[in-house]
Amino acid sequence: MKVLIFGADGYLGWSTTISLIDYVDELILVDNYSKRKYMRKLGRSPLVNLPKVSTRLKNIKSKVKNTTYELDCSVYDSVLNIIKKHNPDAIIHFAELPSAPFSMLNKYYSWETIRNNLESTFNIVHAVKELKLDTHIIKLGTMGEYGTPNIDIEEGWIKINHNKRSDKFLYPRQGSSLYHTSKIMDTDLIWFYTRLYNLSCTDLMQGPVYGIYPHANSNDNDVPMFTYDDIFGTVLNRFIVQSVINKPLTVYGSGKQIRGYINIKDSVECIKIALQNKPKQGELNIFNQFTEQFSVLQLAELVKSSMNKIDVDVIIKKIKNPRIEKENHYYNAKHSNLRKLGLKPTKLTHSIIIEIAEYCMKYKNNIKPKTINPGIKWA
Questions:
Q1: Most exposed: 24, 118, 151, 199, by fewest CB within 10 Å?
Q2: Catalytic residue numbers?
Q3: Bridge-partner residues for 294, per DSSP?
Q4: Which CATH superfamily is domain 2-371 in?
């Protein structure tokens, strides 16, 4: 199988690359490194500054053919030419700006999020359509597209009975940031191209990810770009970094906000499952990609109890919520389809949290405490 990954430099892109390196026949890896540029511009940095993809691959022993490109997926001709040149069996689309706070920073970053995410998605699906390829497109969506409705969240689709007639629709979506709204637009765009032009597409609605090692035999060469700041860091990784530098775990508002979370190992396994289960032409597979539900406060308590096991005292501090979101809400999202296809969920345990913490401790001097507390408000 020949796989093209757009957005190979990111947390998920590199983790997927490492996990597919001996799983497929050929990898084509593309990134324009825009996230790195935005991080520098905003005074943020990852825990470890990693080399570019082509350099990192030199440290990986593999016989799999790989080719790397540095190009912008928002430029249509660039996307078209790469796809035409390589004719991949599958395209994995990670080439989107992945941050809710980034999208709410100001008008410029709001528009950059919408423009980049829509242009990159449009360019990929339209190129496959124009070239008349039978390529499987796998796009990373987000559970945040659904919002927090007062009914169960179905897995992508909902059947509605109305006036003695019934039909199936995309599950209603209500994003709480412009990032999530851009992803909703992506989903609509992919569904449009799928049903009109008989593409084969999969949309993975992923919850917040945590972890450092993409697979069981990983070493530090495999670790992806680990971010912990208020703009690009995910909540669990942020809590762990705060505990490592003896800062209070800052819980936004009541901490009762519930989300579905997933370990990075499971995330890449879901990609493999998607690759193995290509939908028929004209069909869109949607999977809710998470394994466990926690409230933010439950996560903070779990980090606290885990760190106590290695003699690190942790304080939990509730602060005013910088976001406009429901804090007390119903949340029950279905997520059985990936397990039916073979996913064996990794549970969030004390040992996993300690593993992440010990990695962070090695690079403790790199941490910038002032970039962790929220500096962006939705209002």
A1: 151
A2: 142, 179, 183
A3: 259
A4: NAD(P)-binding Rossmann-like Domain (3.40.50.720)
